[in-house]
Amino acid sequence: MSTTLRKAERERSLWGDAWRRLRRNLFAMIGLVGLVLIVLVAIFAPRIAPYDPNLQDYMVAMKGPSRDHWLGTDNFGRDILSRIIYGARISLRLGLFGTIIGASIGSLLGAVAGYFGGWIDTLIMRLLDIQMAFPGILLAVIVIAVMGISDVNVIIAIGVFSFPTFARVIRGSFLVLREQDYVSAAKSIGAGSRRILFRHLLPNSLSPILVLSTLRLGTAILTAASLGFLGLGVRPPNPEWGTMLSEGRNYMQLAPHIAIFPGLAILLTVVALNLLGDGLRDALDPRTRK
Amino acid sequence: MTKYVIRRLAMLVPILLGVSILIFTVMRLIPGDPARQALGPEATGEQVEALRKAWRLDEPIWVQYWAWLQRAITGDLGRSTVSRVPVVEELATRFPATLQLTVAAMVIAIVLGLAFGVAGAVWHNSAIDRVTMVIALLGICTPSFWLGLLLLLGFSVKLHWFPAAGAGGIEHLVLPAVTLGVGAAAIVARVTRSSMIDVLGDDYVRTARAKGLRQQTVVTRHAMRNAMIPVLTILGLEFGGLLAGSVVTESVFAYPGIGQLLIRSIGNRDFPIVQGALLLFSVQFVIINLVVDLLYAKADPRIQYS
Fold it and tell me: Domain segments of chain B: what residues?
């Protein structure tokens, strides 16, 4: 095969096409750059943060933004910028692991329901209907109520809260995919259900899983922050953004910056993830392809 | 239609049973003796043993569930382990406040959401469209508790326009309802916009315009009614989201509703209240979804309820 032909083939691949479309989408690129920055901040927190996030200095407690403390200090005199930088690690970790759990369980359930259909599908969908009766953050609150407050339980709560959405979307995707010719072809050469599910159908469902994961990561970070705010998430003095905001609420009159900046960090992260998620959806959705 | 309503009502039974089984099972997963938890630490061993017998806790789990369900149906959800007040009484005292908050937030979501969504669609691809959609994006991404604190800071602490906490008159309701409603308004705006853009491109809208009808009539009489089906679906789901969101909002504004009670009871490990509040939230949501399903018929007579 000539180099030109190989290049042309590479250019026409699903992911190559998607990347080109994504690059042309200004908002998606803003989201991607923002997310990369936040991830870098989280990875290099010890090098970037100007202070130890838990270092208390009562001499400068509740001071507003200044040259020494760019985002001011909290009621213990801790540097808010350093806490937000370290907080990125916690928030991203909780959101990421929670979303991975939700995506894995949800995709598996959705795949099984969509591929096998019949009573298996009915059973899984009715169970999801019951879950639907606990909307929004309520399911995560139930998990924490039962299992107690800890970082691991927050991740489990986010996973439990997220998996039904994945299950529904992947089921929908599998209902369409299982009717495709290549599935009949695989069946005709004697491929088993497991092989068809994992080697043929799941790779073809990667794009909805990726789009949904990006969008749900934002929701997961919001959920972790909400749990932190309610006192059901990460415990102080760990600098989780929602927990920081909760600590700052008592000083809204004297030092509003204690609560304002962590909230801004949550907002910017979730906006970046939503912009990227929307852009990925447009780039990967075959219906929007010209 | 009547047949459909009866069938939908019948479908509620397995869902509600499933919900009750889930809540019952989950509450039994909590370490510790439910009878001891219900009676509190001061109860004597005999009292606990008597309650264990009455609740059939020494019998198989399905017998326990059946006994619990029978009590629950008659309105006996036990007593708060903290206040010793019956759970139903605690919930009944606080339910009106939560309902008021959720409905007010829903009104805000509908009014703002429809206005922004329709404006975005009518002036599609214009500056108005872009501005409304950026606002909607911010509405979706903003943590409600943060927005609530900012509103408190601006309108309560600085301007003294609204009280900072509690419930009572409409002045207590404004800030919590806005806090709770903004996220839902943003989602309603997005769905309304995309649905209206689809509808505004349809032939009958072109015909309506060709007849010389005014833009306002085309939008409100012809396009909006047909664009409402997906909006109604999302409103049903969002109502559930608002119910759940009230848990966070009530915490910000010290608003004395079920959400605040739920969080406080989790902190106090007051599980009869937690169980009752969860049951109330889920039953409300299931009923709201039924109502939304029935409303489809009003919005779109083409829907056949066979």
Answer: 104-269
